[in-house]
Design goal:
Radius of gyration: 33 Å
Order of helices and strands: HHHH
Number of strands: 0
Number of helices: 4
Shape: rod-shaped
Structural class: mainly alpha
Number of domains: 1
Distance between the termini: 77 Å
Strand content: under 5%
Largest sheet: none
């Protein structure tokens, strides 16, 4: 091969026009900002959906915690009453029952607030 043939075969990609790339990037940023500003962009819908999902997960995780914590706190408060009032089995039993009632009430109020917000 001669030097002239070798020059024709070696084709290098052209360097990008940096000014054109900057214009395209700025236009894309402006369009994305405009879409997100009026709440119709894909990012805003995704964030709203993720926020609602996270809020639901938090609500539904709190319910079992309340159902466990209510009777446990009631039991220990009942045991404390037993020490002062000398009513050995009934303080803990009544305390647990009151704890269960309080937990159900709190779950009911929590779900009521959640349904009102939707």
């Amino acid at each position: 091969m001669t030097d002239g043939e070798n020059d024709e075969l070696e084709v290098y990609p052209q360097a990008p026009d940096l000014e054109r790339v900057r214009k395209l990037r700025s236009r894309m940023k402006a369009e994305k900002a405009e879409m997100n500003a009026d709440g119709t962009g894909p990012d805003s819908r995704l964030n709203q959906k993720l926020g609602k999902t996270a809020k639901d997960i938090g609500t539904y995780t709190l319910i079992p915690s309340l159902m466990v914590a209510g009777p446990v706190v009631g039991y220990f408060l009942g045991r404390l009453v037993e020490k002062f009032a000398d009513i050995t089995p009934w303080g803990a039993v009544v305390g647990m029952l009151l704890g269960v009632v309080a937990a159900f009430r709190e779950v009911f109020l929590l779900l009521k607030r959640k349904s009102e917000n939707e």
